[in-house]
Amino acid sequence: MAVVRVATYTVEQGQSDELGRRVNDSLIPVYEQQPGFQSLAVVDVGDEVISISRWDSEDHAQQGAEAALAWARDQSDLVTGNTSNRIGEDLVSS
User: Fold this and answer.
1) Domain 3-87, CATH
2) Staple partner for 44: which of 8, 13, 16, 48, CB 3.0–4.6 Å?
3) What's the CA angle centered on 63, arms 57 and 65, to 5 degrees?
């Protein structure tokens, strides 16, 4: 069973494409170096993006969250805040 981290970030208006580029260029490589990382999806919902990552344990998900929050702080010209950060077990997945 996987552990899922769901985080919501506020983003400067009109900057989602640039954020997506940066995620591909620099966040995914950070995640790939983290133990237990399985996958990442980032969803554009207007003035926010939702990050959904899958991990093999809660400890690994928490470590990934810390890495992601540090990464987001370095993107302060685009990411204006972290509005939620939740970690839980995947109940259903296909």
Assistant:
1) 3.30.70.100
2) 16
3) 100
